Amino acid sequence: MKGSASAPGKAILLGEHAVVYDKPAIAIPLSQLRAMVDFHQTERTFTICAADLKRPPWQWDDSAADSADPLASMAALTLRHLGVCAPTGKITIRSAIPIASGLGSGAAVSAALGRGIAGLYGETIANATLNALVYEVEKLHHGTPSGIDNTTVVFEQPVYFQRGQPIHTIKPSRRLDFLLADSGVSALTRESVTAVRQLLREEPARTNTLLDQIASAVASAQACLAAGKLLQLGELMTANHGHLRGLGVSSPRLDALVSAALQAGALGAKLSGGGRGGNIIALVEPSTRLAVERTLQSAGAKRVLTASLGG
Ligand code: MEV
Questions:
Q1: 2-161 domain in CATH 1.10.3720.10?
Q2: Separation in Å, CA 62 to CA 37, 79, 85, 86, 173
Q3: Does domain 172-309 have CATH number 3.90.79.10?
Q4: How would you label 88-110 residue by residue, b for 16+ Cβ within 10 Å and e otherwise?
Q5: How far is ligand 1, taken at its centre, from the CA of residue 62, in Å?
């Protein structure tokens, strides 16, 4: 058996951090930015190669099943799900998704790996099951993940997500164009989530107000997406950046990229993901896209990606 499998990255449009506290959030898949696996059956061993993740080739043995390592743990969960205990095969993971930059690299690698291991056995794993397996691994990456990353990545649909609620996919009534600008600073989501939790302990009233304001921006944004109100959607994104600054998860670099995007004509801009580094996302019109892209590059963005929805 040989073949390939993949999963996309993701970007959060609005609602990160508040979603950890059971508020809603909106996220989109980044289908052009993917984690991919090639797999083929071998005679004896089971090897996972992931040079893009800066890891040496890694060979399965029984102790790997109890490992806290995300790749080993995804492999173990998948093998358990398939009811296989002595796998043979080689899996090569390649990922175009930058690590620790808010674009869902961890969830995408796990999802692609799960699909690849199932592929070795000629099986496919239903998305709902794969989502649950990837969520288990997300707990190793993030500590207390909301589940929005794995859901967006596994189902590869724009989602309005709230923990514990059925998944709502979103169909925008108009085409939406985004730019994602990388600050070039890597930051661990686990750390920014921990910092917000600490803030909630130290300043509960102010922090809860910010989380409520984020939830209300997300609800309004969902209505704007349905009605195709892009100007208002942009304003809500920029307001959401202000809330995230209030939570202490922005950085001077992210703020500078957001300001640059807005000055160059973006309809709205905000950090996306855990923050403190990683990417900003800007909503742009076709007429201003190029100007915003160039301005972001001049403002120091390490890489600018385009993404679109609908239309
Ligand atoms: C990370 O992509 C989004 C956060 O809200 C964390 C989470 O939802 O698990 C910061």
A1: no
A2: 22, 12, 9, 8, 51
A3: no
A4: ebbbbbbbbbbebbbbbbbbbbb
A5: 32
Q: What is the rounded distance in angstroms from the CA atom of residue 105 to the CA atom of residue 114? A: 14
- Asked whether 234 and 268 are in contact (CB, 8 A), the reply is yes
* Rounded Cα gap, residues 26 and 22, in angstroms: 13
- The residues spanned by each domain of the chain are 2-161, 172-309
Distance from residue 55's CA to the centre of ligand 1 (Å): 25
- How far apart CA 32 and CA 214 sit, in angstroms, is 28
Kindly report the pTM of this predicted structure.
Answer: 0.96
Query: pLDDT 10s digit of each residue in the chain, 311 long?
Result: 889 999 999 999 999 999 999 999 999 999 999 999 999 999 889 999 998 888 888 888 777 766 778 999 999 999 999 998 778 899 999 999 998 899 999 999 999 999 999 999 999 999 999 999 999 999 987 778 999 999 999 999 999 999 999 999 998 889 999 999 999 999 999 999 999 999 999 999 999 999 999 999 999 999 999 999 999 999 999 999 999 999 999 999 999 999 999 999 999 999 999 999 999 999 999 999 999 999 999 999 999 999 999 87
Closest residue (by CA) to atom 10 of ligand 1? 274
Contacts of 305 (CB under 8 A, 6+ apart): 30, 32, 33, 179, 180, 182
Q: How many residues does this entry show for the chain?
A: 311
Q: Which residues line ligand 1 (CB under 6 A)?
A: 12, 16-17, 19-20, 102, 142, 145-146, 148-149, 189, 193, 273-274
